């Protein structure tokens, strides 16, 4: 598709918006950007456009940057209720997502992965499996590397392992992955989707343009996902039929099977896989107390998964921006596994209301205070787990920023603890 001289407005100046705008500019389009927020991160992204002929408005949305446009590209964080989207619809201007924009320029086959949980892990594993074909693989999308940032480097003989969210799928038109995976489907994002049916409809759009030459890989143990096998024109494969094997490994192995990767090569990759940052990531141990970063747990189901994989007594740090979650569903597990709960962020009152009686609960005004309170409650052999059950945007840029802040506070705590221990030893010597 030729974007030269097209008038394009990008909504949002986060990472995907930044690279969408830069890509459109490089393609010769006349680019505008509208961003409602005025944050340090937005200020950093503005620097990329210095000296470029790009019209930018920050801290507001005006109709001026929508009128007369040929195309609107929206970032995943922009809801359908936002003013620019509504103005574009009124003016019959097409609105597409960042992944649709990149797809229109991508010559390589795409393996797209969606689902409520596990997307990043499976997208990463697929990338490692496909490298065994000897071809170059780009691992990108919602995983943290925007598709638009790398698409200009992609050649026909490459592969793309792409993580896609329901938000990104809302605004696709022609997007057609060679292989589409839906890993699971549980309650999430009800702050954005009106109900579970709307959320599922967004996920199902990953099949929208697939045909009989494409593949759909679905979770056999998830009844809702399994039922989608009759709703796609693609050839269907099911993973997770054998519950004794890690389902993420099974999903990635099926992709390898489609593209001719030997099963032993896949098993070698899985055996050496160390997991991902911010997903049940061991940080350190202080005075016999383990600190684990599970910042990527942005919904209740993810925290259930984490709690079930820890055998030690747990002090849980949770909270952030509520996504319409029902925290009551984790009540019994909290009662069984968590000796103390420290809550932070906008969802504090709701979490306390839903989980009062399950364990002792206290609030913290900041992340540092939450970690200090947790440490005071912990004993040797315990585990302090950050597994928020919520989005990070009330206090942090994203879950990575939140996880990095947790690591930093743990290191600070370890430094203070070492200093106190050293002072005590010196006092005894003196």
Give the C-alpha Rg.
23 Å
Number of domains: 3
- Strand % is 15-25%
Number of helical regions: 16
Q: What's the architecture of the largest domain, going by CATH?
A: 3-Layer(aba) Sandwich
CATH superfamily of the largest domain: Mur-like, catalytic domain
Categorize the overall geometry: globular
In angstroms, what separates the terminal alpha carbons? 78 Å
Helix content: 25-40%
CATH topology name of the largest domain, in short, is UDP-N-acetylmuramoyl-L-alanine:D-glutamate ligase
CATH class of the largest domain: Alpha Beta
Largest sheet: 6 strands, parallel
Count of extended strands: 17
Global mean pLDDT: 92
Structural class: alpha/beta
Q: List segments where confidence is low: pLDDT < 50 over at least 5 consecutive residues.
A: none
How do the strands of the widest beta sheet line up side by side? Answer: 7-8-6-9-10-11
């Amino acid at each position: 598709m030729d974007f030269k001289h097209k008038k394009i407005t990008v909504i949002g100046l986060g990472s995907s918006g930044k690279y969408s705008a830069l890509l459109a500019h490089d393609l010769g389009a006349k680019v505008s950007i509208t961003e409602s927020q005025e944050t340090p991160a937005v200020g950093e992204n503005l620097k990329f456009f210095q000296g470029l002929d790009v019209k930018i408005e920050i801290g507001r949305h005006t109709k001026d940057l929508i009128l007369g446009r040929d195309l609107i590209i929206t970032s995943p964080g922009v809801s359908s209720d936002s003013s620019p989207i509504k103005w574009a619809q009124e003016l019959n201007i097409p609105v597409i997502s960042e992944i649709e924009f990149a797809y229109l320029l991508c010559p390589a086959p795409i393996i797209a992965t969606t689902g409520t949980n596990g997307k990043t892990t499976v997208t990463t594993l697929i990338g490692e499996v496909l490298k065994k074909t000897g071809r170059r693989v780009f691992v990108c999308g919602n995983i943290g590397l925007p598709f638009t940032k790398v698409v200009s480097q992609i050649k026909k003989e490459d592969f793309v392992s792409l993580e896609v969210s329901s938000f990104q799928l809302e605004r696709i038109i022609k997007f057609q992955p060679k292989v589409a995976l839906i890993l699971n489907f549980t309650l999430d994002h009800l702050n954005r989707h009106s109900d579970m049916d709307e959320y599922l409809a967004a996920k199902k759009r990953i099949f929208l343009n697939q045909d009989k030459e494409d593949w759909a890989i679905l979770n056999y143990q998830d009844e809702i996902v399994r039922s989608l096998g009759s709703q796609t024109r693609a050839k269907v494969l099911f993973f997770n039929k054998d519950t004794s094997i890690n389902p993420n490994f099974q999903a990635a192995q099926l992709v390898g099977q489609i593209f001719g990767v030997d099963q032993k090569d896949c098993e070698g990759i899985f055996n050496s896989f160390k997991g991902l940052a911010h997903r049940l990531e061991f940080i350190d141990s202080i005075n016999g107390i383990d600190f684990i970063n599970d910042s990527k747990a942005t919904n209740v189901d993810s925290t259930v998964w984490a709690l079930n994989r820890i055998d030690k007594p747990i002090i849980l740090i949770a909270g952030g921006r509520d996504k319409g979650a029902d925290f009551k569903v984790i009540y019994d597990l909290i009662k069984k596994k968590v000796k103390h709960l420290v809550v932070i962020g906008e969802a504090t009152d709701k979490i306390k209301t839903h989980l009062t009686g399950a364990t002792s609960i206290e609030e913290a005004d900041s992340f540092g205070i939450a970690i200090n309170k947790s440490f005071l409650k912990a004993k040797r052999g315990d585990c302090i787990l950050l597994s928020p059950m919520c989005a990070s945007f009330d206090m942090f840029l994203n879950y990575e920023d939140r996880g990095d802040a947790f690591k930093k506070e743990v290191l600070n705590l370890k430094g203070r603890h070492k200093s106190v221990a050293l002072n005590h030893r010196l006092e005894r010597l003196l």
